[in-house]
Automatic annotation (TrEMBL):
Ranges of residues in domain Histidine kinase: 532-747
Catalytic activity of the protein: ATP + protein L-histidine = ADP + protein N-phospho-L-histidine
InterPro entries reported for this sequence: BphY/WalK/GraS-like, CHASE_dom, CHASE_sf, HATPase_C_sf, HATPase_dom, His_kinase_dom, HisK_dim/P_dom, HisK_dim/P_sf
Keyword Transferase: yes
Lineage of the species this protein comes from: Bacteria, Pseudomonadati, Pseudomonadota, Gammaproteobacteria, Lysobacterales
UniProt-recorded name of the protein: histidine kinase
Keyword Kinase attributed: yes
Any one GO molecular function term: phosphorelay response regulator activity
Record-annotated membrane-spanning stretches: 37-55, 338-358
Domain CHASE: 166-266
The enzyme's E.C. designation: 2.7.13.3
Keyword annotations from UniProtKB, A to Z: Kinase, Membrane, Phosphoprotein, Transferase, Transmembrane, Transmembrane helix
Compartments reported by the entry: Membrane
Organism, scientific name: Marilutibacter alkalisoli
Pfam families tied to this protein: CHASE, HATPase_c, HisKA, PAS_4
């Protein structure tokens, strides 16, 4: 036989000895390795320098941008604080305008104005809106009487004491318990409040007090501020301080907490980690607000710091801001670190690539040397296989001529191998074969395609021989006209042996056909014999039964008890013999009846059998469970006979139970094979006698215990086997029995239109 040979030809050996030596000299040169190492190191250093330079430039640029953003945010915060204070001033001046339009607003009017301004919603940091009167000592009693006459109760001015001027709180909205408790409080008695009120009176402008503790606040309460707007009896601001003092009427003021005010201003600013607000109006810094983390807990210093000085309403605030650490203050720093890591990784990879290229070059040279040596050895192996192979081999060119032949081919054709060079390969055969030249030159891209055929080979000086020929296309070397490899094997002896085997097979088939006809004739004769014997036995049985009945009817009175008992036994034996004959005939019919398979609803068939059994005799307490939807492929009448025997046996052997229970269903059997089953809880049987169950006329129970002829299960087995299935049983004495059987679930593939004999197909 011819096999594909993918080696080079023996006529064209490779000459690579000199180049192998040169490659070996180059690979062993240590200078080449040192140069490769130096080049990889230079690439690594240069790449790292470029990476660090670019990263430093980007880092400084991002830091400056983040610092500018931080400073801009701090300025915005200071501007928002100043803007909110100005809004407070506008609201207070609105209250002052109310006093200019009305000689003295009533508490109800003041409350309406405060509610209209929406203090809680628009100014959440403001604790109230109030009015403080400017009262000389001589006018204080009159103010108290006037206050009482207006129905506001007694005006109690506190702290008590004699002073030249008083500044009691008359109005303060909203009327919370703390604000109500502040009515009558003399603000002019407190030095900090006094200073701010005096400056507002003398300058005619809005003034803000220093940090004070608001009335009613506990010691741990945050510091508060008061904003004062002066009110003059003239309705306008007099030009000189003296006139202002003479015409001074009071102040509209607003108390507020510094921390609430500032925290509300800073809320939502992600760039500021810590803020410190100090009052530096008098030179000595007084802390009035501090918020945020100082950075001492986590040890991370602030990336940026900035101070803003805010001068407003006669006070000077210094606001010191600290940013988050650099990792948070410069959001792009993390990306820059990632870029730096990627740059370092890229530098290392680039250096590794350079080093890998150097090593790859060396490895390529080693591989080239090894492949050259492998090629030389392959040439030697091919030459050896051609020379010593027992199968004839020949290399063919594009014209189908022999380029080289091995000695085995010369022995097969009876010629010298050297004389075959240049001979057309087709000239060696007597019969015609495919066009070998066209097949060798056809370009279909499949160089491994193989042709196998048997041809008649012409052998010089001898009879023609049968040869098994295999041709395969193989590629030749560059410039070499080699297209195919042909292998020739002398199979003459094998073909002759096969011919002898075929002759013996034909003889054997004839013998088998003859034996089959003889067996069929014997079966027919046996069935005819059984049928005739059963019919011939019926005549004497009928005679015995008839004469016994006449003897019992006419002469029964003349017989004693023993005689009548003998007569009854004769009639019972006659009836049993008739039943056995009927059973024998039924079994013979099971083998002869033709199958008419179709799809059968076994669940419905089982329900019909149970109804027939219940109609035949009373079955008190019997419970029968039939699984719905069970179907099989088989003969309806035979399957009805099968279920009648199995369910009838289950009913018969369960009759002695208090609660007889029978099941018919489908599931995996004891060995895991799926099938149908009939299970009962009756008398059962010993498992050691299971082989006797399906033998004709074999019984495990006496006739006095359970009546029967012993052929029911034998008939069941024959029906199942005719459908291509199998049946098995399992049970225990006194614990019931289970019969498992398989049937085809679908018609076999070779069944004509769903009919014909049932063959073993897919079974339950």
């Amino acid at each position: 036989m011819v096999h594909v040979w993918m080696g080079a030809t023996a006529r064209y050996p490779a000459r690579v000895t000199g180049s192998s030596t040169q490659l070996a000299d180059i690979d062993d040169n240590p200078l080449s390795l040192r140069r490769g190492h130096a080049l990889a190191a230079c690439v690594l250093v240069f790449s790292l320098l470029v990476t660090f330079g670019a990263w430093e430039y980007a880092r400084v640029k991002e830091a400056r941008a983040a610092e500018a953003e931080f400073i801009r945010n701090t300025l915005d915060v200071a501007a928002v604080v100043g803007s909110r204070l100005e809004n407070y001033e506008i609201m207070l001046k609105g209250g002052a305008a109310l006093f200019a339009s009305v000689d003295r607003p009533t508490p109800a009017q003041w409350r309406a104005y405060a509610e209209g301004m929406g203090l809680g919603n628009r100014f959440p940091s403001m604790l109230g809106l109030g009015y403080v009167a400017y009262v000389p000592h001589s006018r204080l009693p009159g103010l108290q009487l006037e206050w009482r006459d207006a129905g506001h109760g007694m005006l109690d001015v506190f702290p008590r004491g004699v002073r030249r001027h008083y500044g009691p709180v008359l109005y303060l909205e909203p009327r919370t318990p703390l604000n109500v408790a502040a009515i009558g409080y003399d603000m002019y008695a407190d030095p900090t409040r006094h200073q701010a009120m005096t400056e507002a009176m003398e300058t005619g402008t809005t003034r803000m007090s220093g940090p004070v503790r608001l009335l009613g606040d506990p010691a741990e309460a945050p510091a508060g501020l008061l904003l004062f707007v002066p009110i003059y009896r003239t309705g306008t601001v007099p030009r000189s301080p003296a006139v202002r003092r003479e015409t001074m009427r009071g102040w509209v003021y607003a108390p507020f907490y510094v921390d609430h005010f500032t925290a509300g201003t800073l809320r939502g600013d992600p760039t500021v980690r810590r803020i410190l607000v100090e009052d530096v109006t008098d030179g000595e810094p007084i802390p009035i607000y501090a918020a945020g983390d100082s950075g001492e807990q986590d040890g991370a210093p602030a990336a940026f710091e900035h101070e803003v000085v805010l001068e407003q309403f006669g006070r000077r605030w210094r606001m010191a801001f600290e940013s988050h650490p650099a990792a948070q203050a410069i959001p792009q720093l993390r990306n820059l670190h990632l870029v730096l890591a990627l740059g370092i990784l890229a530098s290392v990879l680039l250096s590794a690539i350079v080093w890998t290229l150097v090593r790859t070059q060396r490895r390529a040279r080693k591989i080239a040397r090894r492949m050259t040596e492998d090629f030389r050895r392959s040439e030697e192996r091919f030459r050896t296989s051609m020379q010593y192979s027992a199968i004839g081999k020949a290399l063919l060119d594009s014209e189908g001529c022999i380029v080289e032949a091995n000695p085995a081919l010369g022995r097969i054709v009876g010629l010298d191998p050297d004389s075959l060079a240049g001979v057309h390969f087709e000239s060696l055969f007597e019969d015609e074969g495919p066009d070998l030249k066209e097949w060798l030159t056809h370009e279909d891209g499949d160089v491994n395609s193989v042709q196998r055929l048997t041809r008649r080979l012409h052998r010089a000086g001898d009879l023609p021989r049968h040869a098994q020929l295999s041709c395969s296309r193989i590629p030749g070397n560059i410039g070499q006209d080699v297209r195919g490899l042909a292998q020739v094997e002398d199979v003459t002896e094998r073909i002759m042996a096969e011919a002898r085997v075929h002759a013996l097979n034909r003889t054997l088939e004839a013998r088998v056909a003859m034996r089959t006809r003889e067996l069929s004739q014997a079966n027919q004769e046996l069935e005819s014999f059984a049928y005739s014997i059963s019919h011939d036995l019926r005549a004497p049985l009928r005679a015995i039964d008839g004469f016994s009945r006449v003897l019992a009817e006419r002469y029964g009175g003349n017989l004693d008890a023993a005689g009548r008992d003998y007569l009854d036994r004769v009639r019972a034996a006659t009836a049993r013999m008739a039943g056995l004959i009927d059973a024998l005939l039924a079994m013979s019919r099971l083998s002869r009846v033709a199958l008419n398979p179709e799809s059968v609803d076994l669940s419905q068939l089982a329900r019909e059998v149970v109804d027939e059994l219940k109609a035949a005799e009373e079955l008190p307490g019997l419970q029968v469970d039939i699984e719905p939807g069970l179907t099989a492929w088989g003969d309806v009448s035979l399957l009805h006979n099968l279920l009648s025997n199995l369910l009838g046996n289950a009913v018969k052997f369960s009759a002695g139970r208090e609660r007889p229970h029978i099941e018919f269903g489908q599931g995996p059997g004891p060995d895991g094979t799926p099938g149908f089953f009939v299970r009962d809880n009756g008398a059962g049987f010993s498992q050691q006698y299971v082989d006797k169950l399906f033998r004709p006329f074999q019984r495990l129970h006496g006739q006095d215990e359970f009546a029967g002829h012993g052929i029911g299960l034998a008939s069941v087995r024959r029906i199942v086997e005719r459908h291509g299935g199998s049946i098995r049983a399992e049970g225990r004495a006194g614990e019931g029995a289970t019969f498992w059987f398989t049937l085809p679930l679908e018609p076999p593939d070779d069944a004509p239109d769903g009919g014909g004999a049932a063959n073993p197909g897919r079974r339950a």
